[in-house]
Design a protein that fits this description.
The protein is mainly α. It is about 75% helix and about 0% strand.
């Protein structure tokens, strides 16, 4: 892995421009990231991820009010499933869209799609049209999820990559903090359509900022080859299978959907690694390259956040939390993730960054093990233990994420492979979240009601954390020679 303090690279002309300009600070710190030169671009990158992350939780908070207004309760789960599947598809096209249109116009397309889908949801007279609008919104959201990492390579000098990826990744956690509050506020005043209208308005503003602040020229030297239809189809079908597993009745239908998803993922890997124009960078499949392990660790870490789907329910059912306290308890993982990540993104030393990549899954696993092991403790203070354990798990996500992201973006000097590697970060997170949300639901159902369900949920994701530790060790071995 190249040194974190490098500031020039032949394939990044903006780096050279930043060095040649005497007034540009070379600190590579937070102050430079939010300087007049880079502030607008940084806000666009962070804002795109923030609206995507907020949207998920805003929608969840609004759905009961939406169904009461326009009906269609049978489509409840498909409102989320349609969005996720469309997002996965679009995220796999990020590198190609960016290479064809350039950063500014690619972001404008993403924000226009997201705004159009949000406006369609705000005006939808029926649940069928709401689901259709969510597909459009998901296409824009998938582009935003991938562009947030990919454009960092082209819009910012390399010395700012760690800070920028920390800022962008922190927006995932921030979205889980703000989203429920925004959705709940609009639901409380009986104006659920206004929340989608607000998302549309914010998207338009950010789209205009993108055109003004990001590079408009497409990097013409990047040739991505033919569109890999077979690989794209298999991965979208896999995402759909895992999403369906979360909505079908528990039992053999759930098992069949999970198995189908796993088989489709395996088929995707088998076809993509020999494809003439693969979805993932070719280096992902090369022996000795750490990119595959980076994607796996990122996916496993982000999957821990899916526990927040059930945490409010367990807080109320097991220890009688009030709805407000349960809502706060439900975002404890995101609290640890967001705050620790801002600290971690301030660390530039490459060796420390590699240590954080291992420490991340260790902390996540330790936190979830502590949460799992104390489920049957009957004491007034147990809520504090649970909250502390979950904050620790979230801290593991936050401490590793910025350095894993930079490691992925630095995995190749080739501009095409580097762009694909950066775009793959968003795809890895979306796929892992889709799989984890289904897996968490299955684990809770298998455990049954009460503490047993909370225990199986925590134990299952903690087991994934153990796999993440092994993968992180592989990253250390592949990058420590740099």
């Amino acid at each position: 892995m190249r040194d974190e303090h490098e500031s020039t690279s032949p394939e990044h002309p903006l780096d050279a421009a930043a060095v040649d300009a005497p007034e540009a600070p070379l600190s590579g710190g937070w102050r430079e990231l939010f300087s007049a030169e880079h502030a607008s671009a940084s806000l666009v990158l962070a804002g795109g991820i923030a609206v995507f992350a907020m949207n998920t939780f805003v929608t969840a908070a609004l759905l009961p009010s939406t169904i009461a207004d326009i009906g269609g309760s049978q489509y409840f789960a498909w409102v989320t499933t349609a969005f996720l599947v469309a997002s996965v598809l679009a995220s796999m096209l990020v590198a190609r869209v960016l290479g064809t249109m350039g950063a500014a116009w690619a972001y404008l397309l993403a924000f226009v799609l997201f705004a159009a889908g949000s406006l369609g949801a705000a005006l939808a007279p029926s649940m069928e049209l709401l689901v259709t609008s969510r597909i459009v919104q998901g296409l824009g959201g998938g582009l935003l999820a991938g562009l947030g990492y990919s454009v960092i390579r082209d819009a910012l000098p390399r010395r700012l990559w760690t800070r920028a990826t920390g800022l962008v990744s922190a927006m995932w956690g921030l979205g889980t903090l703000i989203g429920p509050a925004v959705g709940g506020a609009f639901a409380q005043i009986g104006f659920w359509r206004g929340a989608f209208g607000l998302l549309a308005l914010v998207s338009v503003v950010l789209g205009l900022m993108a055109v003004r602040s990001l590079p408009r020229e497409a990097p013409g030297e990047r040739n991505f080859g033919r569109l890999p239809i077979p690989s794209l189809t298999l991965l979208v079908l896999a995402a759909a299978a895992f999403s369906i597993a979360a909505v079908v009745p528990t039992g053999w239908p759930t098992t069949a959907a999970l198995v189908a998803g796993a088989v489709l993922i395996a088929a995707f890997i088998g076809i993509d690694r020999v494809a003439g124009s693969p979805v993932l960078p070719r280096i992902t499949y090369q022996r000795g390259n750490p990119l595959k392990w980076i994607y796996l660790v990122l996916g496993i870490l982000s999957s821990a956040a899916m526990l927040e789907i059930f945490l409010p329910k367990f807080g109320q059912d097991l220890i009688g939390m009030s709805p407000l306290l349960a809502a706060i308890f439900g975002v404890t993982i995101s609290v640890g993730w967001s705050f620790v990540q801002l600290y971690s993104a301030s660390i530039d030393d490459p060796r420390t960054g590699r240590r954080f990549m291992i420490l991340g899954p260790v902390l996540m696993t330790a936190g979830l093990v502590a949460y799992t092991a104390t489920q049957f403790v009957d004491a007034d203070w147990i809520a504090w233990v649970w909250a502390g354990s979950l904050v620790l798990a979230g801290s593991g996500i936050g401490i590793a994420f910025p350095h894993l992201n930079v490691a992925a973006m630095s995995a190749s000097d080739d501009p095409v492979e580097g762009s694909k590697a950066a775009a793959g970060l968003g795809t890895a997170e979306l796929i892992s979240n889709t799989i984890a949300s289904a897996l968490v639901g299955v684990l809770v159902a298998v455990g049954g009601p009460g503490a047993a369900g909370a225990m199986t949920m925590g134990a299952g994701i903690a087991a994934l954390g153990g796999i993440g530790i092994a993968c992180a060790v592989m990253i250390w071995r592949r990058t420590s020679v740099a």
